[in-house]
Amino acid sequence: MINLNRKLCLTMCGMAACLQPALAEEAGKIYLNPAVGYHMFGSELDIEDSAALVIGGEYVISPRFGAEISYLYGNADIDGSSADVDNSQYTLDGLYYTPAVGNWQPFINAGVGHGTFDSGANDTKETQLNVGVGSRYHFNDKWSARLQAKMINSLDDERWDSLITAGVSYAFGSKSKPAPAPALAVVLLDVDGDAILDQDDQCPNTPSGVYVDDKGCALDRDSDGIPDYLDQCPDSTSMTNLDENGCEILVEQPKSIQLEVHFANNSAEIPSAAKSEIKEVADLMAQFLDANVVIEGHSDSSGKASYNKVLSQHRADAVRDILIREYSIDASRVSAVGYGHEKPIASNSTKEGRLANRRVMAEINYK
Fold this sequence. Notes:
Blueprint: H1 2-17, E1 29-40, E2 50-60, E3 65-77, E4 84-97, E5 104-118, E6 123-138, E7 143-154, E8 159-173, E9 256-259, H2 275-287, E10 291-298, H3 305-325, E11 334-340, H4 351-357, E12 360-366
Parallel strand pairs: 10-11
Antiparallel strand pairs: 1-2, 1-8, 2-3, 3-4, 4-5, 5-6, 6-7, 7-8, 9-12, 10-12
């Protein structure tokens, strides 16, 4: 018997040493554990080893811990006699589930129990402690095979017994959680290959090889609205008067414009026919925002010089007022001067000459 117990101890240690990492048990699962076994008794009892029937209920508390309550019944012969002994044991064990190995779920158990030996004439009762190892092989979620080896110590007569069991178990309760769906791969696109992902690219179709800013748009270093790769003048200083290639359109800047405004004698009223002449000045001022204009009023030599000077000033002011009022030219850009008959361009001795001298000039200055 002692040799058998030693062999059982070695078996139990070997089973514990072979444990390797894998999956754990599922919390909430309950196993019904019927089994058959072979019970080996210490020599102090003077009874022969015998078969045993075991029924147990196991509850999985967590992936690492469980509890089992079991009942064992056996009928053993008394050494040297034809009489026999009925053996019953009630056991409460704590279980520790070690990491699984494939379909195998090893475990270690330790617990306390109550045993009775009834030979008819004598009825012996004892308190027992046990420790053991075992392993469960899962066929599927419900069915499994279970092997277990225990060492059982009687606290009343300091005797060691041993028990080996094998059985088929049925599980109910907790169900395996479905495997999580594989994570969807996120593909980050950069269609135009400018190193700015499409989700951040404000210009997702930039031609290949074009330098871009942090928004994925082609560089435009002179900020004229024409990207550098299309801009033939990428460093243009002008923001206006640009052609489709980003180059400034060079427009001749006239220094002076003679307005064909022919005033009636002794009058500063502008004829309706002269409005188109004034519009040309307004258009020029709108095109060249850095230009200022001086409206010069002139008269012929008829009458007093002082009167002619005042009259020419009124004529220049009339043109200035139209530029400001009707064409929205800023007043600070338009001034008016009356020269009287000081600057004639024709002879005042003829009717035609005097008409030519009654004129208005627009003198343009550029900053």
